[in-house]
Amino acid sequence: RGHNSIAVFRVHMALPKPGLLSVAGVYHTRGATPRHFQFDASGQWLIAANQDSDRLAVFRLNLPTGRLDWTGNEYSLPS
User: Residue 6 in 3-state DSSP?
Assistant: First the structure.
């Protein structure tokens, strides 16, 4: 907590260390205090809900690289 980000990890499948995790990237959630995130059914889009800024931010997941790209779409959702 504290840096308003989502970390993406890559799971290595090849020998000699299948299952090894490595960091693919750390991405700012475009708001304050990320509280929840959810992928859509396709696994291509991620929505991050930021509690203290009352904002939702939409990202596209690049499946081959694990990179999250902010789409520029964000929505105000006051509590």
Answer: strand
What's the average model confidence in pLDDT over 56-70? 95
In 3D space, the residue among 33, 75, 42 whose CA is nearest the CA of residue 60 turns out to be 42
pLDDT of residue 78: 87
Range 33-54 average pLDDT = 96
Give the DSSP letter of residue 78.
-
Q: Where do we find the tokens 């509590």? A: 79
pLDDT at 52: 94
C-alpha span between 8 and 77 (Å, rounded): 25
Q: Spell out the long-range contacts of 55-62 with Cβ–Cβ below 8 A and sequence spacing 24 or more.
A: 55/30, 55/31, 57/29, 57/30, 57/31, 59/27, 61/8
Which residues, at least 6 apart from 68, have a Cβ–Cβ distance to it below 8 Å?
6, 8, 25, 27, 46, 59, 60, 61, 62
